[in-house]
Amino acid sequence: MLDKPVRGFPLREFEERLERAQKLMSTNDLAGILLMSEPEVRYFSGFNTQFWQSPTRPWFLFVPAEKKPIAVIPEIGAILMRSTWIDDIRTWSAPCPKDDGISLLQDLLDPFSKSKARLGIMKGHETGLRMPLMDYERLMSSLPGVELVDATNMIRHLRMIKSVAEIEKIEHICKIASQTFEKAGKIFYKGQPLAEAFRAFRIECLTQGADDVPYLAGGADQGGYRDIISPPSNRPLQSGDILMFDTGATFDGYFCDFDRNYAVENVDDISRRAYDTLWRATEAGISAARPGISCQDLFQSMQNVISEMDDQGGEVGRYGHGLGMQLTEWPSHATFDETVLEENMVITLEPSLNYGEGRIMVHEENLVVQNGAPRLLSVRAEPEIPIIGFS
Amino acid sequence: MLDKPVRGFPLREFEERLERAQKLMSTNDLAGILLMSEPEVRYFSGFNTQFWQSPTRPWFLFVPAEKKPIAVIPEIGAILMRSTWIDDIRTWSAPCPKDDGISLLQDLLDPFSKSKARLGIMKGHETGLRMPLMDYERLMSSLPGVELVDATNMIRHLRMIKSVAEIEKIEHICKIASQTFEKAGKIFYKGQPLAEAFRAFRIECLTQGADDVPYLAGGADQGGYRDIISPPSNRPLQSGDILMFDTGATFDGYFCDFDRNYAVENVDDISRRAYDTLWRATEAGISAARPGISCQDLFQSMQNVISEMDDQGGEVGRYGHGLGMQLTEWPSHATFDETVLEENMVITLEPSLNYGEGRIMVHEENLVVQNGAPRLLSVRAEPEIPIIGFS
Fold first, then answer.
1. What are phi and psi of A368, to 5 degrees?
2. What's B11-159's CATH class?
3. B residues 347-366 lying closer than 8 A (beta carbon) to A
């Protein structure tokens, strides 16, 4: 197994995140931001637990314009939260449907209502409300003086730029996934049901050092796959299949997200050409991915190549995205996204194309944007589709 | 590996779910329910994908009071949705921040606004809003005639009662987890960092046939653990530890959720007593878990035993919960929950207690409520804490 980066972050990391947030809050005249989603609570506190898998309990972190964040959380999380840098931890015995943290939040936020302050909440693209809508409405109606502002763009800007320690974690899980893909010829076999190939991949990825493999998608079909989000069937792998695996594995709460294509024993010309086109589109994206370019221009750099085979654009809706604490993060490499790349953004390049008879092919790499050429975090795919033969 | 139940469900299963829902909608004078959360969309459509891991795209299913559900989803999901029993599938190229399905929803729901209809949405306990709040507000303000009603209790009632096919899936993953726990003495070893024990458990659980292990929590410490939601440290397992693993593994989209405690080589008297108390509390819960009993009374049946050692109640906040498509589902075995158990509910019994010096112990089993004694889905834990010795 690879040497692991240190888990967690030094105190300075959280202090810097808070400083950057408070600077933006000052610019935007915000008195605080109320957060309740897993990545954001973790980003500002270091609170890292799988317990979010249970939808039963809400968790809150309030980031004030001055001073440290305040946690308002179920009692069951108190010990873990006390191990973070957060001092002010307010808890209740949850679940408690009649008052799941609401009166604690009211006590905390009432002074802001009285002073007619502006508070931020995340309500924009790629967010959700991780608390009952009914409780949210009750909370807000009890704070009539608060002016609510969408803080999505502020948080998005903070989280898109990764620290050195964050990049280390993403790089580590990318290496683990790359090593797992290197074993493809050994863990997959002819006649293996696709579902068993998925199982073998997960086990190998854990063996190589992943903490978990929360996302694994793939497909396999004669001359090309047609769907990239279905669960695996029990159809056996067979000669002439194109096989694709796309994995979002994690280390210390950070994701990789890339895929690999394989031809089983042989490949038809059009699939070979599709692979080559995607590979060159990715190459164009790698060349283009420098500080200062917009995501829409980055999309176009890949689309210029893809259009050799497919000028419709695919149903994926974009050619890659941000990556980090979530499998997919802002920005999107798409015509609508004017985000300008900056140093230390971690992104995927994920061109896709549709070709003969409803087939789709996707290809994905992970990289960090830096001055000059980007640094690839995934081991670059072979320029020609690898043919795996089964003994 | 165990023989697997058939994946997916026969058409009749979805027809019955819809019939039951529409009967409740008729009783509650609802013209339709708009759903957007993974379990609910899957429950009514069979749409089963890990793609929900990406927060980028919203997915909608509208269940009308008559006729079949209508899917409003990103184009990338169209092929998979067409493989379900849903016929009316409306798609857009997502992500599209300016209009992520909103105008499609407006077209669909505008007639209900014009007719001043009552529509349901889930906004109660244990729910969240899986779309941007801003988009939700925009959608609803464009439907001024719609009277919105909280449909949480209706959906909760439907989903709490499991079908035979659902119970088969839960039983299967419970068997897999039970077999994994049986290997404890083989996969754990002295000096093994807890994080590596987690890895070994995940790999064994996959090897035994789990599709995935989305939730794995645990703890190990001298004479007892103090925290049950932290990620595993690299502290090596050692003589005198109490080791606990709690797993939410999945088969075909259904969860198990139970734990096991082990003493490493030896155990102190108070931990032995804590284990015995929890085991007997669970036994009391098993005896009590029959159709007609309320969850608060079920809680009390366990608390009567727990109070021998701990009359404060633990920070877990309840002594078990529902189980199925999510790791934790309604109801809660807690003083606030008046839900009455019915045949074919699948629940966990999960008493916990605090004992000397901040130590906590938890114990959990999974069962299906039926006429007469319940049927255990997990292989019952040993009545005395198992001592695992490392060679």
1. -110, 130
2. alpha beta
3. none
pLDDT value at residue B389: 77
Mean pLDDT (chain B) is 95
ipTM score over 0.95, yes or no? yes
Please give the structure tokens belonging to residue A213.
């493999």
Q: Which residues of A316-345 are buried (b: 16+ CB within 10 A; e: fewer)?
A: bbbbbbbbbbbbbbbbbbbeebebebeebb
For residues A121, A144, B127 and B151, what is the CA-based torsion angle, rounded to 10 degrees?
Answer: -140
**Measured between beta carbons, which residues in chain B are less than 8 angstroms from residue A79?**
226-227, 230
Q: Is A6 on the interface with B (CB under 8 A)?
A: no
pLDDT mean over B179-187: 94
Q: What is the pLDDT of residues A55-65, one digit of tens each?
A: 999 999 999 99
Residue with tokens 């050092």: A209
Residues of chain A with CATH 3.90.230.10: 164-388
Architecture field, domain A164-388: Alpha-Beta Complex (3.90)
pTM, 2 dp: 0.97
The partner residue sitting opposite A55, judged by closest CB among B48, B128, B248, is B128
Tell me, yes or no, if A54 comes closer than 8 A to chain B by beta carbon.
yes
Q: Which CATH architecture has domain B161-388?
A: Alpha-Beta Complex (3.90)
CA–CA distances in Å: residue B348 to residues B155, B320, B326, B378: 20, 5, 12, 10
The low-confidence residues of chain A, meaning pLDDT below 50, are: none
